């Protein structure tokens, strides 16, 4: 359990230190604008409530969406409540219906504003169901832009593109033409561009000078791996242990997801490790290429620093590896080490492009024999640098 101690400390510290509340406001049902601090959760789905504090040091309270007409926090998060009809038609190709008609459900929702102006564009997401809405001045009603895929004869997929006719009517007086609207797909970037062309202002985060919005990062790391191996030969009732330290270089590609304030990412890496121990005639020689795949969660403790926790699995490709032990004066059984898979957890601290991390690789069997097993585990400590 000691290997989980560092992870527990990191989580506890991050809960205390990470930046979560930012200046914002909400408008209540009495049409009063209440300013304060709102927890910026960078919502993936439309929020059902918000966490609000009257001041930075005050106790937070939960405010349900039924008490909110509108709220705003940060540069890109502005939500407005509407009572809307949402098309709940399936989007999975295996579940498409044969009818082009939307399957409406009425509900109250806090829609995210994507572009605002005389005409406004909104975004709705509920656990994989994505829809777009628009409103016109005085913005007291929002209507869904209708797009639905459905099946015809022979399982061919057709589209109900009613949203194009809706947008044509909305912007006809501004000069929108049929060829122009036919080129607009049901995607946020194309819909936003259309609304901006006709006077709306896009809500987007301002990028700091010198910073890139690229969600893909390449990291290089070097470190040390403190490994241990417990070998058991059931046919001869012998146990042999080995431990040591090896050098561990690694490359890693990381993709940062564009939700929840960029706190979640996935990564895949590749490295090289040569674990070798020779003691009293016993030999443990394990060279392998670890390929870790995992998810990482970042918890910010400053503008340029964060604490991370991670978990995942690894494929470990053995390279001409073996182990042997002295059984008797005339016998030293030898066993070939096989490819293996394992699980790991870890954490670290990042400042700008530099990181210091630790990763614990849980025990895994690196032999493929009926009567013999070899449980290998390692704790990796490494320094990492982000190239881009």
Overview of this protein structure:
With 388 residues, this protein is mostly beta strands. It folds into 3 domains: 57 residues, SH3 type barrels; 123 residues, no CATH class; 171 residues, Porin (Beta Barrel). Helix content is 10%, strand content 54%. It contains 4 helices and 24 strands. Strands 1, 2, 3, 4, 5, 6, 7, 8, 9, 10 and 13 form an 11-stranded antiparallel sheet that branches. Strands 14-15-16-18-19-22-23-24 form an 8-stranded antiparallel β-barrel. A hairpin with a 7-residue loop joins strand 3 and strand 4. The chain is elongated.
Contiguous runs where pLDDT drops below 50 for at least 5 residues: 13-17, 207-212
Number of domains: 3
CATH fold name of the largest domain: Porin
Largest sheet: 11 strands, antiparallel
Sequence of secondary-structure elements: HEEEEEEEEEEEEHHHEEEEEEEEEEEE
Radius of gyration: 28 Å
Note the total helix count. 4
- The count of β-strands is 24
**CATH architecture heading of the largest domain:** Beta Barrel
First-last Cα distance? 36 Å
Protein name: Outer membrane protein beta-barrel domain-containing protein
């Amino acid at each position: 359990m000691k290997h989980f101690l560092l992870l527990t400390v990191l989580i506890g510290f991050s809960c205390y230190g990470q930046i979560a509340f930012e200046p914002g406001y909400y408008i209540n049902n009495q049409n009063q604008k209440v300013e304060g601090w709102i927890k910026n959760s960078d919502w993936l789905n439309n929020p059902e409530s918000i966490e609000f504090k009257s001041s930075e040091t005050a106790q937070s309270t939960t405010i349900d969406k039924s008490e909110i007409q509108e709220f705003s926090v940060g540069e890109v998060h502005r939500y407005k409540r509407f009572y809307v009809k949402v098309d709940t038609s399936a989007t999975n190709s295996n579940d498409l219906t044969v009818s082009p008609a939307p399957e409406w459900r009425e509900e109250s929702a806090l829609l995210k504003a994507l572009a605002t102006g005389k005409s406004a564009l909104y975004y709705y997401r509920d656990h994989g169901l994505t829809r777009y809405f628009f409103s016109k001045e005085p913005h007291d009603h929002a209507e869904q832009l209708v797009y639905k895929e459905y099946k015809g004869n022979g399982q061919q997929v057709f589209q109900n593109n009613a949203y194009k006719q809706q947008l044509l009517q909305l912007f006809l007086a501004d000069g929108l033409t049929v060829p122009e609207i036919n080129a607009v797909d049901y995607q946020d970037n194309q819909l936003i561009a259309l609304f901006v062309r006709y006077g709306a202002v896009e809500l987007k985060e301002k990028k700091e000078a010198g910073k890139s919005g690229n969600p893909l990062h390449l990291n290089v790391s070097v470190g040390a791996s403190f490994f241990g191996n417990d070998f058991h030969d059931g046919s001869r009732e012998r146990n042999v242990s080995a431990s040591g330290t090896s050098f561990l270089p690694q490359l890693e590609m990381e993709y940062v997801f564009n939700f929840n304030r960029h706190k979640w990412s996935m990564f895949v890496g590749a490295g090289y490790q040569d674990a070798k121990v020779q003691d009293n005639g016993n030999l443990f020689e394990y060279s392998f290429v670890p390929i870790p795949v995992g998810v990482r969660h970042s918890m910010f403790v400053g503008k340029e620093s964060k604490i991370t926790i991670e978990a995942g699995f690894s494929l470990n490709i053995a390279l001409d590896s073996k182990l042997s032990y002295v059984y008797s004066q005339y016998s030293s059984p030898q066993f070939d080490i096989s490819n293996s898979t394992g699980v790991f957890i870890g954490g670290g601290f990042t400042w700008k492009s530099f990181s210091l991390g630790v990763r614990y690789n849980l025990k895994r069997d690196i032999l493929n024999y009926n009567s013999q097993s070899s449980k290998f585990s390692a704790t990796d400590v490494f320094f990492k640098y982000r190239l881009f």
